[in-house]
Design goal:
By secondary structure, this protein is α+β, with helices and mostly antiparallel strands. It is built from six helices and eleven strands.
Length: 303
């Protein structure tokens, strides 16, 4: 789906050595890669001023553009983006640009920082309202790099988080993608332990619900299980716990490229020893590994 954004240029309408013209559409082959490949833009005109200052308005020009192609955004704020297809809708007259920003490059009101498009911001590069941190695109944030609302921590894309790097809502821990978690790295809901993908667990690493023990896949359990399924077969939990697990298995999925592509990238970045040692995992099954990761070890080589 296309949307309107803003782009800044040198006065001769060049940007990074590429010359543009009003009314023209431009397209590149391949996926856009921020700061490497594609046409860059900002969601708000004021955000372009971090790259082409309004103090030098006689040397720069600014345009409304239509983003048509695939997009990669700067994370987590999404202030800046890159696309492989863009249309230059119109060049904004100098006087209109001056009227859209104040002396500190803000387009909102009562801002004490710079490059803010919302209101009552005391930090920089905020596009929401009432932010006291930096690079926030939501509202009422007191931390930094938040794209949600009412966050007091950092790098949150959800709402009402007081921890860091949360993508869900109302988390007080860190790196949670679910809701109302007080522990860390939970993807489920209302967990007070760590690394739970189920719900209402007070233990750690549970994928079931209401468990106070660890590594349980069932419900209302207090005893630690003796066996777990590994590659679809039972495995002694102690054996699994002691097994060497290569670092590349603990990758962070990139939503821009998908789960399997992220898995493969982590594999490609791993050292040769770790690639070989994945075969030493208990119950290792190359067919299952390929189905999950997209990495083909069935003939002894990666695809």
């Amino acid at each position: 789906m296309s949307f309107k954004a803003y782009k800044a240029f040198n006065r001769d309408m060049t940007c990074r050595g590429f010359k543009y013209e009003e009314g023209e559409t431009y397209e590149l082959e391949g996926k856009p890669i921020l700061c490497e490949h594609g046409f860059h833009f900002c969601k708000e005109l004021v955000l372009t001023l971090a790259y082409y200052s309004a103090d030098d308005i006689i040397d720069n020009c600014y345009a409304e553009v239509e983003v048509i192609g695939e997009v990669e955004f700067e994370k987590p704020t999404e202030h800046k983006g890159c696309t492989n297809k863009i249309k230059i809708l119109r060049i904004i007259p100098d006087e209109e640009v001056k009227g859209m920003v104040d002396g500190k490059n803000n387009s909102g009101e009562q801002n004490s920082g710079n490059w803010n498009s919302g209101d009552w911001n005391s930090g920089n590069w905020n596009s929401g309202d009432w932010n006291s941190g930096d690079w926030n695109s939501g509202d009422w944030n007191s931390g930094d790099w938040n794209s949600g609302y009412r966050n007091s921590g950092n790098w949150n894309s959800g709402n009402w988080n007081s921890g860091d790097r949360n993508s869900g809502n109302r988390n007080s821990g860190n790196r949670n993608s679910g809701y109302r978690n007080s522990g860390n790295r939970n993807s489920g809901y209302r967990n007070s332990g760590d690394r739970n993908s189920g719900y209402r667990n007070s233990g750690d690493r549970n994928s079931g619900d209401w468990n106070s023990t660890d590594r349980e896949t069932g419900f209302f359990n207090t005893k630690r299980p003796e066996t777990v399924n590994v590659f679809n077969k039972p495995c002694n939990l102690e054996k699994w716990s002691r097994a060497y697990k290569p670092d590349f298995l603990y990758f962070t999925p990139d939503p821009g490229i998908g789960y399997k592509a992220s898995f493969r990238k982590s594999w490609e970045d791993a050292n040769e020893d770790d690639r070989e040692r994945v075969r030493d995992l208990p119950n290792f099954d190359a067919d299952i590994f390929y189905e999950i990761s997209g990495i083909d070890l069935r003939q002894g080589e990666s695809a």
